[in-house]
Every structure is written in C-alpha cells, then in structure tokens.
Design a protein that fits this description.
The complex is a heterodimer of chains A (about 160) and B (about 300). Helix content of chain A is about 40%, strand content about 15%. With about 160 residues, chain A is an alpha+beta fold. Chain A folds into 2 domains: about 70 residues, Ubiquitin-like (UB roll) (Roll), CATH 3.10.20.30; about 80 residues, [2Fe-2S]-binding domain (DNA polymerase, domain 1). A 5-stranded mixed β-sheet of chain A has the order 2-1-5-3-4, covered by helices on one side. The chains are: A alpha+beta (about 160), B alpha+beta (about 300).
Chain lengths: ~160, ~300
C-alpha cells in the first residue's frame, strides 16, 4: 500500500507493507537518527514525533503515518531549541556511545515544546522510556535541567 | 514482520464493524498498536479506529465521565476533565502506564480489550463501576465492565467494537486509593489494588475493592467489599479492615510466574488492600505507624 505523510515539513509518498512499522519505513527513506533497539517499545531509541507527540516508531504502524506529520531528529537540526539541547548534552557528557541520544533529544524536545513544567519530576517523566546503557541517566537529566534553567531565567528576565 | 495483507481505515464505529465483517479472511481492530506489534494478531487485515471519532473525553452536566475507546493514556493523564474525578485515581493510573512515548499512542480501549489480567486501567475502572459501550453493525449495547472480561486475553466482544467507557458521577466523588506493585516503574504489575469508597452520612455506603494481576481476569473482591458497607468512617475498627483485607486475599486466584510466586502475590493483596482502605479513609497516620514508616 502507498502512504502519503508530511515528513519534516515535506510531503513524502512511500510504498509500505501493511504490517510494517514506522521505524523501518523511516530508515528506508534515510532517517538514520531513528535507531532500532528493542523493537518492543521499551528502549526509546526509535522515538519520533507523530503530530508533535513522542512515539516509539517500532510499535506504531507505518500505515498510521498516512495523512500525518512525522518529525525526526533530521528535521530539527536547525531548530534553536534542538541546538540548545544538543549543546547541553555534549557539554554535560550525556553522549557516550550515542545510540540513545536521538531518542533522548526528541523526548526532551517534545516536552519543552508542549509543557511549561520545568520541575525535575517533569523532566524525569519526559525521559521515561529512554534506556541508556552508558551514562546512568544523570548526565541527560543535568542537560535537561540546564535547558530548563535557561527557560526559567529567560521568563524571569522578561517579567 | 507482521504478515498483514491489508490495513483499513474506519471513519466511524459502524464503518469499523462493517470493515471487520467484510472479509476476505479474518481481521482485528487496531488503535495505538503498542501491544499489537508485540503480539501480532494472526489475521489477514486490521481495521484502524484512530479516525473513527472515538477519541473524546467528556463530562455530562450531571458529572458522568465518558472516555472514548481510542483516547490515549497521555490524554487521560493530562485532561482537566479527568483530573478531579475519584480523587485523581484515574489520571494516576493512566500516568503510570508504560512510559511517556507508549502513552502517546496506547489507548484506554486497547488496554481493556487486550484483557491482560494485569491491564493497568482495568482495576481502576472496575472500582469506579465503569460501563462499556459496544458497537454492532447498526446497534449499540452497554454492559458493566465486570462482565466484559471472560479470561486472559478474552472478552465478550467477538467481532464487535468497544467504543467507549462511562463512569457514573457518583463514582467520581468516592474516596479512593490505589497501589500498583511492580518490579520497576515501567514493568507490568505484580499486584494492583484499587479501593473506592462511597461515603454518605459518615458511613460507607458503597465499597469497591478491585484487583489486577492476581486472577485470570481483573476482578472485584466482593466479599471483602461487603465487610466494609455500613461501617462508620470514623469508628471503623482496624481489625475489621484487616479482616476485609484477608478476605480479599482469599478471594483472588494468583498464579506463580517468573515475576512472583502466587503465595507472595496473595500476601501482597492482603497487605496492600488494608493500606489502601486506610488511605482511602484518609487515615495516613495509622498506616505510617504500622508499616514502619513506609506508606505503600
């Protein structure tokens, strides 16, 4: 079957297998930030945005993307918030092997876009579902906290 | 790879049922798909209900709460119409189901229709007297959720479609407490206990004790519930609560598996039921004192 989706702001048509997952389709069309990890919706390395919501693309039907907006890390490389998140992840040493980084970045990006909740609890919640076997999670949380602090300072300065 | 021949989209509940019966071969409904991709149904086609108008959350003027079957768990966890219902027990359960990206697509209907004994939303909905609305080709019927489950991964549906769940306004005013015992925050539950108490004139008028992961289907401990009805909220004896909890432990039928033994699960039903009754009665001091400072 053929699907038509808006991938990173551009219309894309693609022939898919009816039982295929979104993960394999995105990799087929060159979105290599989308990693295959567990393929059970547990590890988060295939996280993309479906109409702005973070989803595990391994457990989302490719057919479901038909008529919807899909955003991968490739589509956010010029985005100021994404640049800030990437910078803090690097500075804090949150990137070691790097396999989980795209999923972590997309998850945090979705959180900061959708919610004004900058509490540590909210940031931890936003990172749930992303497994990292290198760092122990503290560094990603520190990076997220710094971006949250920057938000707080900005809004503090404006008021 | 899931060997599906066809992926169909339904624009309404009626169309979904029609597409399901159209053949050729057998079909299955799909919404979030988070469980379907883990345990692919052996079928020729699926019928997607994400665009069938089943994603609404609504409150009636009387206060009844309606949850469309295709409503995502994230929407339930963050929707202001749900926030104050049953002291937040419903949003609490939705917010602790799976992880954030799973909750973006996993739906309440899927959680119920998969009919796992450990389904996270089932005990909460049972404790709040949920009614299921089920669509047939050109009719709709309703039945209590407690009659919906017939066994592990089995429901009364056959090829019909669950369109939504309704919770009565009265259930929304109950005093509630729940606890999901898991190995890790994202694992499925070992034991899930939900208590909802309807209070009138200082007495327990309605008592619901619903249990997950300790029987072939999500269940209510009706004998334990009966112990509580008619008791005064302020004068209920700790012994009576302990008895009710022990009765609940006797009512469940847990299994041994790699997560926990049946014996452990049964004892946890007793411990957690007693604590949740106390918490629902807002008796935090007693629990703290008597569980060595750890409130479960």
């Amino acid at each position: 079957m053929k699907i038509e989706m808006e991938l990173n702001g551009r219309p894309v048509a693609h022939e898919i297998a009816p039982g295929g997952n979104l993960l394999s389709v995105l990799r087929e069309i060159g979105q290599f930030s989308v990693k295959l990890g567990c393929e059970t919706g547990d590890c988060g390395s295939c996280t993309v945005l479906l109409d702005g919501e973070p989803v595990n693309s391994c457990v989302v039907a490719a057919a479901r993307a038909h008529g919807h907006q899909i955003t991968t890390l490739e589509g956010l490389l010029g985005d100021p918030l994404m640049k800030e998140l990437q910078h803090e992840m690097v500075v804090k040493g949150a990137v070691q092997c790097g396999y989980c980084s795209p999923g972590m970045l997309i998850s945090l990006y979705a959180h900061f876009k959708a919610s004004g909740d900058l509490s540590e609890h909210a940031l931890r919640e936003a990172l749930t579902g992303n497994l990292c076997r290198c760092t122990g999670y503290v560094k990603q949380l520190e990076a997220a906290q710094t971006v949250a602090d920057n938000r707080q300072n900005e809004s503090g300065g404006a008021s | 790879m899931w060997e599906l021949k066809e992926y169909r989209f339904a624009a309404s509940a009626q169309e979904a049922v029609a597409l399901m019966r159209q053949g050729p071969g057998t079909g299955a409904y799909i919404a979030g798909g988070t469980d379907m991709f883990l345990h692919p149904a052996e079928c020729d086609f699926v019928v997607d209900i994400n665009h069938a108008g089943l994603s609404d959350i609504a409150r009636t003027p009387a206060g009844d709460l309606f949850l469309g079957a295709a409503t995502t768990l994230h929407n339930i966890a963050t929707n202001p119409l749900v926030a104050d219902f049953a002291e937040g027990m419903l949003i609490e359960a939705a917010a602790h189901c799976g992880n954030r990206p799973v909750r973006s697509t996993a739906t309440i209907g899927g959680n119920i229709c998969n009919a796992l004994p450990s389904a996270d939303m089932a005990p909460v909905l049972l404790a709040l007297d949920a009614t299921c609305y089920i669509a047939d080709a050109d009719s709709q019927e309703s039945l209590p959720l407690v009659d919906f489950f017939v066994g592990p991964r089995a429901t009364v549906l056959e090829d019909r479609l669950l369109v939504g769940l309704a919770l009565p306004a009265e259930a929304g005013t109950r005093r509630c407490a729940s606890y999901k015992l898991t190995r890790s925050a994202e694992d499925i539950s070992l034991v899930h206990v939900c208590v909802a108490l309807g209070i009138e004139d200082g007495k327990i008028e309605t008592a619901r004790i619903a249990l997950g992961a300790v029987a072939p289907v999500p269940m209510r401990a009706v004998l334990a519930e009966a112990q509580l009805v008619g008791q005064s909220v302020t004068e209920i004896s700790p012994d009576l609560i302990a008895d009710a909890a022990a009765i609940a432990a006797g009512e469940c039928e847990p299994l041994d598996d790699h997560r926990a033994s049946a014996e452990y699960r049964r004892d946890m039903v007793r411990v957690l039921t007693r604590r949740q009754i106390l918490r629902a009665l807002h008796d935090e001091t007693t629990i703290t004192k008597d569980s060595g400072g750890t409130v479960a």
